[in-house]
Sequence to fold (279 residues):
Amino acid sequence: MRFCRILFFVFLLLPSASIFAQEDVIDHFFDDVDFADTVTVKSDDFKYRIIDYITLHQEQEKDDENRTYAAMFAVDKVLEFSVVSYDSYREIFMFLIDGFSALGYDDLVEFMANYPHFYEIKGTTESQFMELYNATECHSRVGIGKNAPEIDTVTVDGKRFSINTIDSEYVIVAFWSYDCPHCRDFMHEVGAFLDENPDFAIVAVNVIGTKREVKRLMRREKLKNSFFYREELEWQGPFAKAYAVNSLPSVFLLDESRTIVLKPMEISDLYDFVNNISR
Fold:
């Protein structure tokens, strides 16, 4: 289970009939739409309707950040409606991510990389997930094949470091939370991996947790070639934002040129990578 960022949207409750009317329109916007009808879902009229739905959410917000969050909320709802079939979900997903990428809406592209509600679709296959995954990676600013954003900062122990000066061929960048069991499991498992693979280092960026908790994990796991940093601003921290982190753990493997070569979901993905390069 991944520890996902939850976005809360606060709408001003103004004593305006137009505001209440707009909210009523939003609540019933797709009442007459059959999302299982792929002919409808593929039509231009329906695509324009999705754009109108997102715009209605954004109109209630006054600044760019809240408008982006409102758009995320709207996209999440549209994809939730579309889980009636993979074909409907895919059509809407591809339309949205292609459009957001073309318009330069990076935050929305990265939000799509969480594949909202995909696992609620019945009977999906790994190849279907990979179809969406490959499409997302093409658009993501932190996709495989892209240069990794720099991390140049000070560890919780006060030591300066940069991913570009770490003397290891490969660097694992892992964003994690102390409150996330899967994160702690990964940090424990990666210890054994680092013991077996001395040409790997890890930059462990704590997004949620106190400095005391980070140091507690450091003492317990005693990871080799490790650099621990804590985001003071949590999800809004500079490195969490640079790597478009919306769920934890989020893990990136960088090669010698600090290009992203893998985004492992499990520790087994790292072992598979090592086996492949050693053939």
